[in-house]
Fold:
Amino acid sequence: MEATKASLIRAVRARRTALLAVFPFRLLGFAALSSGGVAFFATVLPAGVACFAVALPAAVGFAVFFAAFFVVEEAESADAVAESPEDCPATGSTTISMESKPARQRAAKRETELWENADLISSLYAAFDLDALTRNHSRYRKRRKAGLEPLCFAAIGTPFGTLPRRQVHLFTDHKRSPQPVPADFSHPRPMSIIQPIAGELEPHPDVALIERVRGGDVSAYDTLVRKYERQVFRISQHITQNREDAEDAMQDAFLKAYEKLEQFQGNSKFYTWLVRIAVNESLMRLRKRRTGKMVSIDEDIATDEGSVPRDLADWAPDPEQNYGQAELAEILRKTIQGLPQGFRIVFVLRDVEGLSTEETAETLGLSIPAVKSRLLRARLQLRERLSRYFHKKKGPTESRLGEARSKK
Amino acid sequence: MTCKEFLTLLDDLIDDSVTPEARAELQAHLGRCKHCEVIFNTTRKTIEIYRSHEVYDLPVGLRERLHSAIMARCKKGC
Structure:
C-alpha cells in the first residue's frame, strides 16, 4: 500500500514538474508570436525593409510556440508509457480505445487496480480537497497561501495547463464509472448503523409498512413517523438552529414524504429518502429566515481552521463526567453550532445519524471525496473545540512523561 | 509514515475501513507518535460523545402536538 501511495505521489509530481518546466517556453512563444503580430499590423503599410523585421520574430514565435506544445505532447505520451500498472496503478488512463490487444489488456488491468486502490486514492484526493479544486481556482490559491501542499496540482486544470479530467471523474462519481466495482471492494462503514443492513433477500421492515400506507393504512405511517421523528427533528434543528423552524421543517418533511410516497422507488432506504426531504425542508426554512441571502450546504466552507490539529493536549478519562447532563448538552450544542454549516450537516448525518458516506453524498448532492474531506475536517474541528472543556489537568510528572515520549 | 499521512487515513481508521496492512502501519505510527495518539483518541471520543448524548431532544408535549397535526393532515389526504 505504501508502494502504491508512493508511486501515485511520484506520478502526480512528475506531471506537475513536466508542466511547470514547459510553461516558460509556452509563455515566451506566445509573447514572441503576439509581438510579431503587433509589429505586422503596425508596419503593414510602410512595407519594404520592415517586412523582414516582422517576419523574423513571427517565425521565431511560431517555432517556439509549437515546440512547446510538442514538448508537452511528448511529456504526456512519456507519462502514458511510464504508467504501466506496476509503476502507477492509480493515475492510469481509463479510456480503452487503444488499438492493440496488449494495450487494451494493460488498460483493463489498470482499471481493476484503480478500483482495488479506490479507497486509498479517494482518501488522498479528499485530503487534498481535489474535488473543490477542480471547481474553483481561487479556493486552490487560498489553500496554497495557507501552506497546504497541492499534491494534485497538475492532475487538474491549472493556469499552467490542463490534464485530462477523466481520472478525477472516477472518484467524484463512482456511479458513472464504466467498470463495475469489484465484489471485494470494501466500502467504508460507519461505526454503527441505526438500521441494521438487511440481507439482500430479506426486505427491510419499512418496506412492509410502506406497502400498508400505500394501501390506505394511515396507522402504518404513524409507526414510521414515531420511528424516525427524533432523527428528523435533530437534523432539522442542527440545520436551522431554531426550534420553531425545526418543528415546521419536521412537520413538512413528514407530510411531504406521505404525499410523495408513490414516488418512493424503494431502491434506497426509506430513512435516507426521508432525511433528504428533511434536509431540503430545513434549508428552505433557513433561506426564508435569511431573505435575500443564499443558503447552501457550501456556506462558510472556505475556512481552513481545524484542518491541521493544534491542540495536542490529552483529555481526562471520561471527560464528560465532569459536567452535569444539562451543562454537557449546552457545551455540545455550543460547540457544534460553531462549526461551518457544510461541515456540521455532514458530521450530523454521517456520525450522529449513522448514514454511510455514500448515503450522505447522495442526500446532500455532494461527491464522495467531498463528504470524506468535510467529515475529516468536521471531526478535527469539533475535537479541537471540545478540547477547551475536556483538557486533562496535567500533573508535573505526567507532562514530563508526555514530553519525553513526544521527543522519541 | 508521517503525521500528515496518518491524518489522511485517520477517518478510515476510525471508521474501520482500512486494510489489515494499512492498519498495522497506522498502529505502528500510533505507537511512536504521542501527538497522533492523542488526536486519534480524542477524535474518536468526540464522535462517541456526540453519538451518545442527545444534543436536541424532542420534548414529549411537542412530539404529541406534531404527531396529531401530521396525522390529521394525512387523514384528510394531505
About this structure: Chain A has a mean pLDDT of 66. The CA atoms of residues 53 and 112 of chain A lie 57 Å apart. Chain A touches chain B through 63 residues (CB under 8 Å). Residues 205-289 of chain A form a domain with the Rna Polymerase Sigma Factor; Chain: A fold (CATH 1.10.1740.10).
